[in-house]
């Protein structure tokens, strides 16, 4: 598995490749949901978006996926092909997959449906299974290939979806609250896997999360979003930001009754 | 042709042309019903396809009103309009799907009954409700062949995409699939299959023929391929067995087929319960 935007260049140079998200605004029913959001995402970096409920975090991801109408642009700038800009290939891990838990759909079916044009009822090509297995192994989920999707635990399902989002390798990986509803060991395994994959495949990752404790350790950058970008920086910088501390009730330790 | 060859079978029913036609029709369409049924069940559209079936009543009413000799065209047209209308309304209003479907269904049944009952003539059309085997002519079988090849081929070609869209819209979109057009194609296929078979199966139960084999297979299949193949086997077996029972018992064929399929459903349900208990 190798990402095509890395061909012929040393990994450290790829830090220069990036996805430019410029001036994204979304208006729904005449109310601005997000305004003028600009972010530059570098390869090999995990950027996490935090913000209160209704801050427009998921809307931003849905705008990047092209699901909601928006102004502004999103471009992928490859360092080795100056001047060539493309819409980035996007991988996506949804927040919670709503599906029939008793459905006969297997993990291997999910991969075939997503990556192969040969109709599943006619059978699955060996090459599809092989690439699915190697993607699953990268996401610590190799043993799940022939399990039914409905039989997986929350953590297993998220690792399967992570593996799927990396087949083929995207320029930009979007994770929408990937660990909500997963138990603590499952969260730690998911973060560890994402973190390893980020360095191994030089991925730019944009994640939405509420899990402040977990993301501080795993993120390279944190974006505090409340309709617009309020603060951007390393986890230490943003965690020290007054607006951020206020929004998340982290100021309470200094609070004294009058 | 095959239909004539069937006449040499040593059974009483094989002497009748309508039974030979019916048997060929059942063998042609039941695998297609099963294939579509698996997608309808997976994408939680069982109630949707039910509405399409019931909307046919209005289609027939409009056909009669327009003075068409064969209401098939009005039928297809109205069912298609209703299907796309439901899709669009759901997209625009974001109201819950079952509310919209329920509304559309009551509307189209009411309109259909009003149109067909003008002058107290509803009884003339009641055969559409329970279906009539005699309505299958060799010419119809030609049309059915064409439907099976076109719709079956189309559904197979789009199977993976429809499956993925049913699973999660955003996930499908991140993989470059256009949910809207795939859904439109799927709805059009449901309309074609339902309306083409309406006259012999009957409006009241056509949806069961679509859903039951898939649900029966759903109980015990462990992956999608098994699911489709089992559904096809159940559909074919209930079709043939149900048709023959209806001949000897003198009952409506569509309903008899549905009852046999229901039997298969109960069997697989029991098998599932036994498997659970054994674990």
How many domains comprise the coordinates of chain B?
1
List how many beta strands of chain A DSSP finds.
9
What would you give as the CATH superfamily of chain B? ABC transporter involved in vitamin B12 uptake, BtuC
The coarse overall form of chain A would be globular
Distance between the termini of chain B: 51 Å
The CATH architecture classification of chain B is Orthogonal Bundle
Biggest sheet record of chain B: none
Rg result of chain B: 19 Å
Query: What is the straight-line distance between the termini of chain A?
Result: 61 Å
Number of helices of chain B: 12
**Percentage of residues in DSSP E strands of chain A:** 15-25%
Helix/strand order of chain B: HHHHHHHHHHHH
Shape of chain B: globular
Folded structure, characterized:
The complex is a heterodimer of chains A (258) and B (279). With 258 residues, chain A is an alpha/beta fold. Chain A has helices spanning 57-64, 107-115, 126-138, 154-165, 184-201, 212-218, 235-240, 242-247; strands at 18-28, 31-42, 46-50, 71-77, 90-93, 172-176, 204-208, 221-226, 228-233. Chain A folds into two domains: 13-89 and 172-258, 3-Layer(aba) Sandwich (Rossmann fold); 96-169, no CATH class. A six-stranded mixed sheet of chain A has the order 5-6-7-3-8-9, with helices on both faces. In chain A, helix 2 (107-115) crosses helix 3, helix 3 packs across helix 4 (154-165) and helix 4 (154-165) packs parallel to helix 5. Chain B has one domain (2-270): ABC transporter involved in vitamin B12 uptake, BtuC (Orthogonal Bundle), CATH 1.10.3470. Chain B contains twelve helices and no strands. Chain B has helices spanning 2-5, 17-42, 46-65, 72-93, 97-116, 127-130, 138-167, 169-174, 179-201, 206-220, 224-249, 253-278. Chains A and B meet through strand 5 and helix 2 of A and helix 7, helix 8 and helix 11 of B.
Walk me through the topology:
The complex is a heterodimer of chains A (258) and B (279).
Chain A: E1 18-28, E2 31-42, E3 46-50, H1 57-64, E4 71-77, E5 90-93, H2 107-115, H3 126-138, H4 154-165, E6 172-176, H5 184-201, E7 204-208, H6 212-218, E8 221-226, E9 228-233, H7 235-240, H8 242-247
Parallel strand pairs in A: 3-7, 3-8, 5-6, 6-7
Antiparallel strand pairs in A: 1-2, 1-4, 8-9
Chain B: H1 2-5, H2 17-42, H3 46-65, H4 72-93, H5 97-116, H6 127-130, H7 138-167, H8 169-174, H9 179-201, H10 206-220, H11 224-249, H12 253-278
Helix pairs in contact in B: 2-7, 2-9, 2-10, 2-11, 3-4, 3-5, 3-9, 3-10, 4-5, 4-9, 7-9, 10-11, 10-12, 11-12
């Amino acid at each position: 598995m190798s990402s095509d935007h890395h061909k012929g260049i040393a990994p450290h140079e790829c830090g220069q490749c990036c996805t430019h998200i410029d001036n994204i605004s979304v208006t729904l029913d005449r109310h601005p949901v997000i305004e003028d959001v600009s972010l530059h995402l570098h390869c090999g970096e995990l950027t996490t978006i935090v913000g209160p409920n209704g801050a427009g975090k998921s809307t931003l991801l849905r705008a990047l996926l092209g699901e909601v109408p928006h102004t502004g642009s999103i471009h992928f700038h490859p360092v080795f092909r100056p001047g060539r800009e493309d819409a980035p290939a996007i991988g996506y891990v949804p927040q919670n997959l709503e599906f029939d838990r008793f459905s006969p759909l297997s993990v291997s079916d999910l991969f075939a449906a997503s990556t192969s044009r040969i109709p599943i009822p006619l059978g699955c090509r060996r090459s599809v299974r092989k690439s699915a297995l190697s993607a699953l192994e990268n996401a610590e989920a190799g043993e799940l290939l022939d399990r039914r999707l409905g039989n997986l635990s929350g953590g297993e399902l998220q690792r399967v979806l992570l593996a799927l989002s990396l087949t083929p390798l995207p320029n930009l990986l979007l994770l929408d609250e990937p660990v909500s509803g997963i138990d603590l060991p499952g969260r730690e395994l998911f973060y560890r896997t994402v973190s390893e994959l980020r360095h191994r495949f030089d991925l730019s990752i944009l994640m939405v999360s509420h899990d402040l404790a977990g993301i501080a350790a795993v993120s390279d950058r944190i974006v505090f979003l409340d309709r617009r970008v309020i603060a951007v920086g390393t986890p230490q910088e943003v965690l020290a930001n007054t607006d951020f501390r206020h929004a998340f009730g982290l100021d309470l330790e200094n609070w004294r009754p009058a | 042709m095959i239909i004539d060859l069937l006449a040499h079978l040593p059974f009483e029913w094989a002497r009748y042309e309508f039974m030979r036609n019916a048997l060929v029709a059942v063998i042609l369409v039941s695998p297609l019903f099963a294939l579509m049924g698996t997608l309808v069940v997976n994408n939680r559209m069982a109630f949707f396809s039910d509405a399409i079936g019931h909307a046919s009543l209005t289609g027939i009413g409009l056909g009669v009103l327009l003075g068409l000799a064969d209401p098939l065209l009005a039928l297809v047209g109205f069912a298609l309009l209703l299907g796309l209308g439901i899709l669009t309304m759901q997209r625009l209003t974001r109201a819950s799907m079952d509310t919209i479907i329920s509304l559309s269904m009551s509307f189209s049944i009411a309109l259909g009954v009003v149109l067909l009952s003008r002058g107290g003539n509803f009884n003339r059309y009641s055969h559409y409700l329970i279906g009539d085997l005699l309505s299958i002519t060799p010419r119809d079988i030609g049309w059915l062949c064409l439907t099976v090849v076109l719709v079956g081929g189309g559904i197979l070609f789009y199977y993976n995409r429809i499956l993925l869209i049913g699973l999660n819209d955003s996930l499908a979109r991140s993989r470059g699939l256009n949910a809207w057009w795939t859904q439109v194609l799927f709805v059009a296929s449901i309309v074609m299959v339902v309306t083409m078979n309406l006259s012999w199966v009957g409006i009241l139960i056509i949806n069961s023929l679509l859903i039951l084999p898939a649900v029966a297979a759903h109980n015990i299949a462990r992956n999608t391929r098994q699911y489709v193949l089992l559904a096809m086997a159940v559909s074919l077996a209930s079709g043939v067995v149900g048709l023959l029972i209806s001949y000897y018992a003198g009952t409506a064929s569509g309903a008899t087929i549905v009852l046999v399929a229901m039997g298969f459903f109960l069997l697989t349900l029991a098998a599932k319960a036994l498997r659970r208990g054994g674990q």
